[in-house]
UniProtKB/TrEMBL annotation:
This is Delta(14)-sterol reductase. Coiled coil: none annotated. GO terms for biological process: sterol biosynthetic process. Belongs to the ERG4/ERG24 family. It comes from Senna tora.
Amino acid sequence: MDLDFLLLALTPSWNSVALLVGFFTYLAIAGSIVPGKVVPGVILADGTRLHYRCNGLFSLSLLVALLGISAKMGFISTTVISDRGLELLSTTFIFSFLVTLVLYFAGSKSQSKGSSLKPHISGNLIHDWWFGIQLNPHFMGIDLKFFFVRAGMMGWLLINLSVLAKSIQDGTLSQSMILYQLFNALYILDYFVHEEYMTSTWDIIAERLGFMLVFGDLVWIPFTFSIQGWWLLWNKVELSTVAVVANCIVFLIGYLVFRGANKQKHDFKKNPKALIWGKPPKVIGGKLLASGYWGIARHCNYLGDLLLALSFSLPCGISSLVPYFYPIYLLILLIWRERRDEARCAEKYKEIWAQYRKLVPWRILPCVY
């Protein structure tokens, strides 16, 4: 791929703009009208709490069905995303850049004193644009933070499905591609089955909405987490039966740890007396859960996430580091985030956090880190 071809492939077109606008329009409409469980968010500093309509699974299923029908009737190609991958990447990047500028300038004019919309301005334009200045900005009644993370997860699946269609069309479908697609689909669908858990994550309750989150949701998640699929589209990998079984075991363990830890944390926040593994929870200082997975490591959910990321790359074999970009990046990110979490918790909980660290000495991987 020469430079001229790459630049041409990255050049946005009206078709890519139309695809992106159509996708966001559908999500905005479906998110507002499709039936779904309304989940209260955490109580914010001013005593208020937002409510989220968790209808992502229904919205995603309906979208895939509509796209399938449209493809069957010849209105759209199943490979439209894989054919325009780089073009859509640059279009989405430009959109992320522009929307965060709007968020900055609109937020800086806010006179709100509430936790959700109160502007937090440091005076450093780059810092405030990157990290954001409002916690939960809205547009036409849509919570943008929740909207963007949903768009990123759905976009990831749509890219994968288009890559799968391209593989079938080109006659290159392999066992490795099937395994990768299966793991990713299960992970993404599971995310939407448990979408309400997202409402209690750090990103939703504490991070302000700036370029870091918008770019992360709309560009980084769908376009970099799908690198393995793109790689398998152009590289044939033969896996032994042992490798397939081992890959499935890594995925299963990762899923059990990731989903189990997040479920325990979510249930604990809703009901601090809920049983953990059939026993009353051990709680430090009345605030910190030290039972179940959270009694094994202080950030054990990160371990599950890392194992899942590894399972997405293992179908690509070990001939190249390219398909392992995601787990390598995630390892660096989660260690950095874990350090940020530790600093925040030490400041927030003080002596209670010191007690928790003494009781649970391991950060992510027991006996190692």
